[in-house]
């Protein structure tokens, strides 16, 4: 690892100092930091940022956490370009059997403007479905790969109880913070994270609610699922989730690289802890919607 890049993409950044700072972030904040010999990675000589990227990639791999990853400047830019060009779907829904409200809740990882649009559209959809006075609700998370949990939770806020929804836990299992619902706003550390509030009250509060899950239900979608677990008259159907029920922090580095770092586990309102393993449904089956309808009937 002695090659020097003749066209330094980030002039003025010392590779050794850059590597030391990133390793310090990993050692201090990574959920699985205790299992890595950080001194070994600090001893690797680096002559370029490419060398530093290679060491960081190996250190991330040593964490063994599938939800943590490192993006080089080129990979980070490609992801940003893809994200800006991607058509993000909005929540959609309809009445089923003229009795049950069905809500398809897609992933959301857009700009603040898109997050507000997503939340407002979802809130309007909830109100429109509630006009039919449904006997129960179905929330479909099967195609939701994650992103930002707060717009999703704001949309479905009328189906949840005010108060504690879930918790973040550190590596020692201690609760570091909670996410909560108050008057249509999702709070984290007493700060509102809702793009726009959704204080709507259903015609039938605390409805029977079925959640549909599958292997593509991941990350923020799993946090949304966790927010319902432990409530009365809530049941889950389908297949186990993707197994990314941990909280990530996105750290943009000075050369354009990005570190997506898993820093905490998640727990539901009853204190049950979730990690990077799939969350099983209450009723397993490929035809999750049919199972949910049978239960609601």
Number of distinct beta strands: 14
Number of domains: 2
Mean pLDDT: 94
Distance between the termini: 65 Å
Helix content: 25-40%
Largest sheet: 8 strands, antiparallel
CATH architectural name of the largest domain: Alpha-Beta Complex
Q: Which structural class is indicated by helix and strand composition?
A: alpha/beta
CATH homologous superfamily caption of the largest domain = 2-enoyl-CoA Hydratase, Chain A, domain 1
Summary?
This is Tail specific protease domain-containing protein. The protein is α/β, with parallel strands linked by helices. 31% of the residues lie in helices and 24% in strands.
Structure overview:
It is elongated, with a radius of gyration of 21 Å. With 297 residues, it is α/β, with parallel strands linked by helices. Helix 7 links the parallel strand 9 (209-213) and strand 10 (234-238). The protein contains eight helices and 14 strands. The protein has helices at residues 15-29, 38-42, 49-63, 73-85, 112-130, 149-155, 220-228, 288-296; strands at residues 69-71, 92-96, 100-104, 136-140, 163-169, 175-182, 185-188, 191-192, 209-213, 234-238, 246-252, 258-268, 273-274, 283-284. Strands 1, 5, 6, 7, 8, 11, 12 and 13 form an eight-stranded antiparallel β-sheet that branches. It has two domains: 15-84, no CATH class; 86-249 and 260-296, 2-enoyl-CoA Hydratase, Chain A, domain 1. Helix 6 packs parallel to helix 7.
